Amino acid sequence: VVGVSQEGIEWDAVDGKPAHLVFLILTAIDENDTQLEILSTIAESFSGPTTMHEIVDAGGASQAWELVGSALKRAEASA
């Protein structure tokens, strides 16, 4: 699940900036490696300067989800 906030949400981040994208990741309790792989892919996918802004500024949920999918596929292809 991906939550998108144009205004941003206070998340007590180290850099003091609000969160604009929030990801809910569900895995079995004993799948720590899977959780780390998913987090790594997400971090790599959204580390670029424009990807997060494109998703936040998307024209709706379907466009935002399409952009999320594209970003994740790019990260997996470069891995």
What distance separates the N and C termini?
23 Å
Please state how the strands of the largest beta sheet are arranged side by side.
1-2
Along the chain, the helix and strand elements come as EEHHH
- Give the C-alpha Rg: 13 Å
**Roughly how much helix do the residues carry, as a percent range?**
40-55%
Sequence stretches where pLDDT stays below 50 over 5 or more residues: none
Quote the average pLDDT: 90
The global form is globular
Number of strands: 2
What does this structure look like?
The chain has 79 residues and is α+β, with helices and mostly antiparallel strands. The protein is 48% helix and 16% strand. It contains three helices and two strands; from the N terminus they run ββααα. A two-stranded antiparallel ribbon has the order 1-2. α1 (32-45) crosses α3 (61-78). The longest helix is centred in the last third of the chain and has 18 residues, at 61-78. The radius of gyration is 13 Å and the shape is globular. The model has no long low-confidence stretch (mean pLDDT 90).
